[in-house]
Amino acid sequence: MEYAKLVELYERLEKTPSRLDKVGMISSFLENLDDNDVRMSILLLQGKVFPKWSEKEIGLAAKTSAKIISATSGLSESIVMKDFSELGDLGLVAEKAIGKKTQMVLFSKKLSLGNVFENFRRLAETEGAGSASRKMNLVSELVSSASPKEAKYIIRTITEDLRIGVAEGVIRDAIAQAWFADVEWLGNAGKKDRFISLFLNSSGKSFVFDAEGAKKAKRMISEEKFEDFIKRNNVSEKDLSDFDENLLWKREGKIDYIITGDDSLGNDLYKRIVGYIEWAWFLNPDYAEVAIIAKNKGIIGLKKAKITPGRPIHVLLAEKAPSLEDAIESFEHVALEVKYDGMRTQIHKDGERVWLFTRRMENVTAMFPDIVDMIKRHVKVEVCVLEGESVGIDQKTGKPVPFQKLSQRIHRKYDIRKLAKEIPVQVNLFDVIFLEGEMLFDQPFSERRRILSEIVEEENGKLQLAKQLVTKDIEKARVFYQDALSAGQEGVMVKNLDAPYQPGKRVAGGWLKVKPIMETLDLVITGAVWGTGKRAGWFGSFILSARDEDGNFRECGMMGTGIKEKKTADDDVTFKDLTEMIKDDITTEKDNMVIVKPRIVLEIAYEEIQESPNYASGYALRFPRLVRIRYDRSPDEADTIERMNALFMRQKGRG
Ligand code: AMP
Fold it and tell me: Catalytic site residue 100?
């Protein structure tokens, strides 16, 4: 396939604000591709060439990309940089520069998708001495035979700033639409116009209606037009209440559309399709592979998704409980566990091989050889996946160090063993989800914990099971909670002993966390303002945003408090730290303000949430203050405007 085809899709996606339309465009694009093109396209639509859990990334700095544009277009670097500061998008700069190229290469080869993908892969794999120039060559090779539009997206891909508004959920829904029947319920008010146009314009498609659906459709377009519709398409009527779900797969059921008059039934069928796709993705977090299963094996294939040692999964998440009492009352059989303040660690073992992943599925195996050693010595089974929290320990006090300190180990490339001695870790195991080839999700937590205690030989203070107390007695629970806090831990987790393990979910009925602090918000930095006076040379305040329901970031405040001018303690965050973290993410610069790619998540405390017409979120934070950097959260896990609204309502109720 030609890369130009994908570029044409990128262009259409960029211009389309509607999520539904984006899903439709991607699904009809994917529908007719072979496996290999599906795989490459799905990764490239997410701006990637490896799944998100891979350590290999494409990212090149803006400066390097500017050099490439200059070298391939013949424009000077200073002109390229000037265009960049005006347009705020290196992709557009590349498009313009290549468009202007005076000596057009007349017989340049057309770029194939495979070529582009392969060069991007090599780019991500190139390391070590001389890698900078090899990387430049790989991209220059592509850009010099690219059309202006192709150059735009090659550059946007390497700067990891695709700007086509395609979140993971859009890819998931596009997979559903490409290879499964499109389930529609006619009470879906927002789609009425689409239904009418579907019935009036489609032809040669296969439709299954239930009686109520057919009746409503006739009412929408008239009996007569419905007769015409039936003549143009292959239409049948069925009772859908016990519909065989395997027929939802287009290859099996040969159905393009299932139309029901029963909204909850429609919703349920649709959610099932999406649910199976998501399930496979929770266990194999790569939509490129999930798409191939959906395409070739349908629902049966998706249901068979299984953990593969060495590949991280989406883990179970916790909910907040309003109080310890509330949490304990939530379940019949409860266990309290210390909530350790460290790094969620997913531990995979297959014989002598061990892998470690964070909650965001980063592979941190190389940075924690001490954990790998302990697992090899103390876990008495061949194959398993365990879950735990790794805490950095202060050698003098024996207390946990702040996460910030432990995180020095997370991105470390050199002197790893030395740092492991300076900041030793303690692993607190709390679950086992895979054992000798079998998934243990359906076993109740009490049973999983029992198995865990059998397969792990504890080494006190080093590798141990999370401290646990099974009780319904609130007085005993309070003592346990206070003990956890005085030991320097975050609080407690209250767990339902009867609950299964649900990957990827923040589920009611699973884990409840109880922490003493006020409810902070996790917000994303989307911009900053240069500081003056003592803060000159650094950003002095930061624009914070929350997520809206479409995954866009909407501003809700400016923060300059809680950040230090000088580092005096390990967990201090300075203006310099934050400036360095975001300065490569700048997309637009105007006067003393910059807009940055949403990447860094901060935990923010505040006095009050106020309604505000000045901010896009509709809310403003009063006296926002930095609590810490949430290295463990990605922007798509940041708090939503909906949560701000809930907190705002609650605060009003109190006030
Ligand atoms: P939070 O990040 O505040 O939503 O809290 C959930 C996190 O607490 C999990 O992702 C774990 O990293 C961490 N955690 C610490 N101790 C435990 C425990 N005993 N059980 C489960 N999670 C724990």
Answer: no
Q: Identify the three-state secondary structure at position 280.
A: helix
The first and second tokens of residue 9, run together, are 């899709």
Token readout for 130 is: 């001389």
Residue 536 lies in a domain: yes
Q: Does residue 376 fall inside a structural domain?
A: yes
> Which of 166, 195, 218 marks a domain boundary?
166
How far is it, in rounded angstroms, from Cα 528 to Cα 544?
9
Q: Are residues 528 and 625 in the same domain?
A: yes
Q: How confident is the model at residue 518 (pLDDT cuts 50, 70, 90)?
A: low
Q: Is the pLDDT of residue 303 over 60?
A: yes
Q: Which of 484, 562, 566 is nearest to 523 (CA)?
A: 562
Confidence class of residue 654 from pLDDT cuts 50, 70 and 90? very low
Catalytic-labelled residue, pool 339, 349, 515, 597? 339
Say if residue 545's pLDDT is above 50.
yes
Show Cβ contacts of residue 521 under 8 Å, excluding neighbours closer than 6 positions: 546, 603, 604, 606, 621, 639, 643, 644, 647
Residues 529, 643, single domain; the answer is yes
Q: Can you tell me the distance from the alpha carbon of 75 to that of 377, in angstroms, rounded to the nearest whole number?
A: 60
In a shared domain, residues 361 and 412: yes
Q: How far is the CA of 337 from the centre of ligand 1 (A)?
A: 10
Ranked by mean pLDDT, which of 411-425, 443-457, 532-546, 629-643 comes out on top? 443-457
- Residue position matching structure tokens 């990447």: 599
Ligand 1 pocket, residues with Cβ under 6 angstroms: 318, 337-340, 344, 359, 389, 430, 466, 493, 511, 513
On whether residue 586 sits in a domain, the answer given is yes
Q: What is the mean pLDDT of residues 334-358?
A: 96
499 and 534, same structural domain? no
At 105 the pLDDT is 55
Distance 269 CA to ligand 1 centre (A): 33
Asked if residue 474 lies in contact with residue 324, where contact means CB atoms within 8 angstroms, the answer is: yes
Cα 446 to ligand 1 centroid, rounded to whole Å: 18
140 and 229 both lie in a single domain: no
Same domain for 130 and 38?
yes
**Count of domains for the chain:** 4
| Torsion of Cα atoms, 55 then 60 then 61 then 67, to 10° | 160
Q: Tell me the C-alpha distance between 386 and 158, whole Å.
A: 35
What is the C-alpha to C-alpha distance for residues 196 and 126, in angstroms, rounded to an integer?
52
Per-residue pLDDT at 190: 85
What whole-number distance in Å separates Cα of residue 420 and Cα of residue 426? 11
Same domain, 190 and 153: no
Question: In CATH, what number is assigned to the domain containing residue 117?
Answer: 1.10.3260.10
Domain region containing 567: 521-653
- Six-digit token string for 158: 């390497």
- For 447-497, how does the pLDDT look when each residue is reduced to its tens digit (9 = 90+)? 999 999 999 999 999 999 999 999 999 999 999 998 988 787 888 999 999
- Same domain (yes/no): 385, 506: yes
pLDDT, mean over the chain: 93
Residue 291 in any domain: the answer is no
Each residue of 409-430: pLDDT tens digit?
Answer: 998 889 999 999 999 999 999 9
Q: Which among 344, 360, 426 is the best mutation to test ligand 1's pocket, defined by most ligand atoms within 8 Å of the CB? A: 344
The residue whose C-alpha atom lies closest to atom 17 belonging to ligand 1 is 339
